[in-house]
Amino acid sequence: MTEIFFHQYLADYHAFKPYWNYEDGCVLLGCERMYRMTGKEEYAAFLLQYLNERIASDGTIRNYPESLCSLDSFQSSKALFFAWQHTGELRYRLAIHKQAAEIEKHPRTDSGMFWHKRIYPQQIWLDGIYMTAPFFSAYAEMNGDTGFFSLIRHQFRYLRNNLRNPENGLYYHGLDESRAQKWADPETGCSSAFWLRGMGWLLMALTDTAVFLPSAQSAIKRELSEMLKDAVDALLYYRAENGLFYQVIDRADSPGNYTETSGSLMAAYAMMCGAGTGMLPGTYYETGLSVLNTVKAEKLRRTDPGILLTDICASAGLGGEPYRDGSCAYYLSEPVVSNDPKGVGILMSAEAAARAYNPDTAEG
């Protein structure tokens, strides 16, 4: 049923936003990974058609939201590496260079961390490390620019030192270095709840960054591996009875809390990739696979309108208007939807990871 669902989903897909956005990027990367695993041209064709319509001959990304100054913009740009390798068209390589240059203009906190967006000054969100670090690790491999490795190491070390709760090992969603936001703890600057998809972004950032690190950067990979195991173990402690993870990770007792699909899939993906690349012990593959299979059994449903991937948090953030206070109650108030690209794209990536590292046990 999984690949039937992917086929139907891609056939009916419309861009999530009118500009270059990270939601579409989740689907693009899922397609790349499924193509690499299955060799089915529909996945590569979807990705290349999407990019072909948006990348000009000089590498300009049409409808690029430059004014937003958002780290989210790097997510879809990760698909440019596949397009360049697959087609050899210069415009994709030029687009990669243009996207990499955007980071030079991006505002930073006093500690050298990137603001999540222009409208969130002095704020670091877990989302941002996933959007950027794998892109720059891939860029360094392509371009030979080793200067990015120190930047990558600094970003991950900062998160571990400042957003990790030392008592339970979980990571807070965000931190405000200015301590100006109402959601920020006046001492630590951190938000107050542990949001599953925030942790998911971090876990995938660790695996997707490490895969591009050359042997000369083995020390960084070792750090990322240790960070990954520590974070995965912390998350597994709060695993629900059905084997998945809660929207607010450590608050199973809170009314309205539920096992959320996208974050559970992110954890599954990270565990299988981590085990497959040696970042985690091999036993974590089976744990990740069991999470994936539970999602497919409980959250992927046949309905009269078609197949639905259910129980996906539509969106979550901090601050803004209306104000999001980062509390447990806030995260549980966000709409729960089906077939959101942040869930479907990660399902594609997790399914590909299952096949990549143990194809005999993955389902079709």
> What is the chain-wise order of helices and strands?
HHHHHHEHHEHHHHEEEHEH
What is the fold-level CATH name, i.e. the topology of the domain at 108-357?
Glycosyltransferase
Q: What is the tally of helical segments?
A: 14
Question: Structural class, from helix and strand content?
Answer: mainly alpha
- Say how many strands there are: 6
* CATH top-level class of the domain at 108-357: Mainly Alpha
Mean of all residue-level pLDDT scores = 96
Major β-sheet strand ordering: 1-2
Q: What this model shows, in words?
A:
The chain has 364 residues and is mostly helical. The chain has a domain at 108-357: Alpha/alpha barrel (Glycosyltransferase), CATH 1.50.10.10. α8 runs parallel beside α10 (218-236). It is globular. It has helices at residues 2-11, 22-38, 41-52, 74-77, 79-87, 90-102, 126-143, 147-162, 196-210, 218-236, 261-276, 283-298, 328-333, 341-357, and strands at residues 123-125, 174-176, 300-303, 306-309, 312-313, 336-337. The protein has a two-stranded antiparallel ribbon. Strands 3-4 form a two-stranded antiparallel ribbon. It has 14 helices and 6 strands. 52% of the residues lie in helices and 5% in strands. The longest helix has 19 residues, at 218-236. The chain starts with a helix and ends in a 7-residue tail after the last helix. β3 (300-303) and β4 (306-309) form a beta hairpin.
What are the salient characteristics of this protein?
364 residues, mainly alpha, two-stranded antiparallel ribbon, 14 helices, globular
